[in-house]
Amino acid sequence: MHEIHNSERKSFRSCRRRWDWAYRDGYVPMEPEPALTFGIAFHRGLETFYNPDAWTATDVEEKLTAAIEAFLVECNIQKQQYLKDHSLRELSEEKEDEFLNSLDLGSGMLAYHAQFVHSDFDDWFKPVMVEIPFEVPLMDPDRPGMLLHCTNSPACGQTHSNNPDSDDSIVVYAGRVDALMEDLRYGGYFVWDHKTASLLAKDEEFLQLDDQVGGYSWALSVMLNLDVRGFIYAESRKDFPRPPRLLKRMHKGCLFSTSMTQATSIEIFEPYVAKHDPEAFIAGKYDEYLEFLRSAAATQFSQRFTVIKSDEELFNIGENIAIEAADMVRSPRIYPNVSRFHCKSCKYRQPCIASFRGEHLDLMWEGAYIKTDRRHWMEQVRQEEKVEAE
Known about the structure:
single chain, alpha+beta, 6-stranded mixed beta sheet, two-stranded antiparallel sheet, 14 helices, 18% strand, globular
């Protein structure tokens, strides 16, 4: 079948030249490989935490223990694979430090999630499925009632039959959903997606028209024939709250830091200073800082946005995906979408400039890109790496 993923849809709309090079010609930029892809490992931990089979049979501590173990196992798998790929016996001192710091970070984030996020916000649902792959056949917008087929292989960048009557040429919308939750309060189901980010989103407005939010909700409603009512965007900051720093000398009657930039929270900070600096705490020396930690201005370490999708919205989303896919598989015209902001960070910027100059690109492709004729298979890796929210 011909698979279409969200990243390809975005690339197609953003710049057709880049899309053509990446998804049809199969040129993938060579990039330094990290020893650990943190988002994937943290994802494994949360996948284990929300394991439907163990949801009612385990308590919070058991869930956390299993999640941290899954996270650490994935980290070590990645480390061993990195050593093997680079013919190394051990990591450099710098990379080993990065690796150990990542272990501490992920374990701390999972512990915070179990103690302060799960305990307060996870009582309204139960996990039904986790890590759900999907492939939903798309209908042909120009032939009502008929499935959409691609007959351009291998020019389309994928290998399949070109027989328009064969199942092998069907175009499918494909991807992987983190979890599906059943709403125990009002019924129905919600698609669930974990994200990690250095900075959390300021609001949910961007999610209303987000490709993944709409597309994944529609796909599961069709594939599983379920009453999918929306999408939960669960975001975790790549950090976790810690006890406050002990000052080298007392400041304004306080033994501990009240810096607004330190990684702490009201749940961690208040009981800690009450125990370790009781006189200043009782005297109100920390009151102003405690008010700050209770406010919206304080650093947030986790948040969730709920995006409701009506049946009509889901239907229209499916229609739009099919229309877009039809444009992609029917030899669209290729041209660059030049933009000051898009082009600045584009990984195909140099060949694009060379193309404008009429230069041959063969040496550039050989020196800085990997050539593959099955670009869409790499999407599975990129879909996992998407958990590192941009």
